[in-house]
Amino acid sequence: MNTYLFAWNPTKWSWTDLAQNIESLNQTGRVIQKWSCVSHKQVRLGDRAFLVRLGTEPKGIMGSGTIISEAFLSEHWSGEDKLVHRVFIEFDTLLNPMKEPILSLEALDIGKLSRQVWTPQASGISIKPDVTNELEAIWFNFLNDREPEETIADDAASDSYFEGATRAVISTNRERNPHARAACLRHYGYKCIVCEFDFEKVYGEAGREFIHVHHLSEVANKKGVYKIDPIEDLRPVCPNCHSIIHRRKPAYSIAEMKDMIQGNSFK
């Protein structure tokens, strides 16, 4: 998998529905946009994409996602009578630079990251392979370290009513970080880590990219806002295995679950 840097310059093109795109992403977990790509001969399905804002402050990385199409010809964004190569990007993260912090260009001018051109003249340039791991790490840490009210609503309350009841029941929910979930699934994929059930293989398109993500350390036992490592702390599990995991307190471990399936006995 290769990684590419796409660019948005608001002085040249006004992204009028950015807020709606972000809202859609927050509600559905995905939003798809087509973007011009100078590396159209090299780009492949499944390649990683980052989006940088240029032209006017604030400048920096504001989004990430996955390329989900081959390159194709499309009309130029300016309306000029010419065609440009584009790809479809499914974003897993989009930030609004006018309402929240983005990963600044200054933060990218350190270590191996300083070897990469972050202000490209064309959109869709290749990011150097020896830079990508450091970029993924700093991007994840940036998203995870943002202000709690922007990324993790620690005490998000909701009113729920039970049938036949005359009183409201207030519940406090600990919200999961969607960026950590996305990073976990990029690493482990969408097959259950316990029983290896693959929803897409069984259900086709309806099961594509469907899976639960399990926290190895139960969220309910945490106090306040905390950091997680999506590779060390999270695992993809199917709903059945996830339900069984939490039928006991403390929850069953992944190893215990695998033993259970294999018929081994344990307490």
Task: Summarize it.
The chain is α+β, with helices and mostly antiparallel strands. The chain has helices spanning 18-28, 129-145, 148-151, 178-188, 199-203, 239-245, 254-262, and strands at residues 3-8, 31-36, 48-53, 60-67, 72-75, 83-94, 103-104, 125-126, 156-160, 169-173, 212-215, 234-237.
List keywords for this structure.
single chain, 267 residues, alpha+beta, ph1033 like fold, 2 domains, eight-stranded mixed sheet, two-stranded antiparallel sheet, 12 strands, PUA-like_sf, 5-methylcytosine-specific restriction enzyme A, HNH_nuc, zinc ion binding
Give the integer mean of the pLDDT values.
Answer: 82
Strand content: 15-25%
**Major sheet:** 8 strands, mixed
Please identify the oligomeric state. single chain
How many beta-strand elements?
A: 12
CATH architecture of the largest domain: Roll
Number of domains: 2
Distance between the termini: 43 Å
CATH hierarchy class name of the largest domain = Alpha Beta
CATH topology of the largest domain: ph1033 like fold
Q: What spatial form do the alpha-carbon principal axes imply?
A: globular
Q: Cα-atom Rg, whole angstroms?
A: 21 Å
